[in-house]
Task: inverse folding
C-alpha cells in the first residue's frame, strides 16, 4: 500500500479524506479478486455514482463477499482500471483476474484504488483495507504486519492529529526509517473506524520491529509499539 495517501488521511490537508488505499503499479498490471465473491458492478461511474462525484473512479469493479463471523455483506471496490475483465453477476474466486490497472477517472498516474465497504455498497460505508487485507510479503520474503491505533483526548474522544512515525529494528537501536502520518480526518465525507477496533488510524504492510509514534500537541507525546509479522498491533494514545 502506498503510505503517502493512507485511508482516512488528507495528505496534510491537500485532499478530501481518503476512502481507500492505493497500489502503485504500471498500466496493464493484472488486478486480482481479493476474495471469493460475486461481481455486482462492472463498468464505470459516469452514469451510476459510487461516490458523491461523477467519474471519480473511472472504470471499476465491485465484488460482494460473505465471510463467516462477519455480519452483513462485505464489498471490495477496484477503481481507475484500464480494462474490466468481468461482468455483473459472475462468480469469481480469490486470485481471479477481474481487470487491469489504469488511470481512468480522477487518477494522477497509474495505480489501483482499493476500498472495503461494510454492509452497503456506499461511499459512507468504508472501512480501512489495512485491517482486512492479509499483510503483503516484504522485499526479502518476510511477512509484514499492521499498526493500528486510537488517539483520543482526556475524555476518550478521537482527535485528528499529525504524527511522526519512526521505525527501528530494535527498541533503542538506530532509526531505520520514518514517515509522517495522521489520524482519520473529521471533514466532509468522514471515514469510519472498524466496529471492533474503533481505530482512528491503521497503517498496513509495515516491516516487523519497533515503531515510535510522536505527537506534538502543546507538549510532545510519545508511544512505542512493536509490529509483529502477520498480526495487527493496537496502541491507544491519550492526549491531555
Result:
Amino acid at each position: 500500500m502506498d503510505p503517502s495517501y493512507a485511508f482516512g488521511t488528507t495528505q496534510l490537508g491537500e485532499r478530501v479524506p481518503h476512502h481507500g488505499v492505493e497500489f502503485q503499479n504500471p498500466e496493464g498490471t493484472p488486478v486480482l479478486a481479493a476474495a471469493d465473491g460475486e461481481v455486482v458492478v462492472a463498468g464505470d461511474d459516469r452514469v451510476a455514482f459510487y461516490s458523491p462525484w461523477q467519474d471519480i473512479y473511472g472504470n471499476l469493479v465491485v465484488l460482494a463477499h460473505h465471510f463467516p463471523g462477519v455480519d452483513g455483506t462485505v464489498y471490495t471496490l477496484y477503481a481507475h482500471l484500464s480494462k474490466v475483465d468481468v461482468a455483473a453477476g459472475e462468480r469469481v474466486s480469490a486470485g481471479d483476474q477481474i481487470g487491469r490497472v489504469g488511470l481512468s477517472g480522477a487518477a494522477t498516474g497509474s495505480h489501483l484504488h482499493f476500498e472495503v465497504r461494510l454492509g452497503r455498497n456506499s461511499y459512507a460505508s468504508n472501512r480501512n483495507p489495512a485491517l482486512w487485507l492479509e499483510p503483503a510479503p516484504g522485499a526479502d520474503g518476510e511477512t509484514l504486519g499492521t499498526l493500528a491505533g486510537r488517539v483520543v483526548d482526556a475524555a476518550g474522544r478521537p482527535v485528528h492529529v499529525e504524527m511522526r512515525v519512526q521505525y527501528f529494528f530494535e527498541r533503542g537501536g538506530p532509526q531505520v526509517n520514518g514517515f509522517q502520518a495522521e489520524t482519520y480526518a473529521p471533514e466532509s465525507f468522514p471515514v469510519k473506524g472498524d466496529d471492533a477496533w474503533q481505530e482512528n488510524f491503521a497503517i498496513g504492510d509495515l516491516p516487523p520491529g519497533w515503531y515510535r509514534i510522536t505527537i506534538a500537541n502543546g507538549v510532545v507525546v510519545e508511544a512505542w509499539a512493536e509490529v509483529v509479522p502477520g498480526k495487527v498491533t493496537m496502541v491507544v494514545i491519550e492526549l491531555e
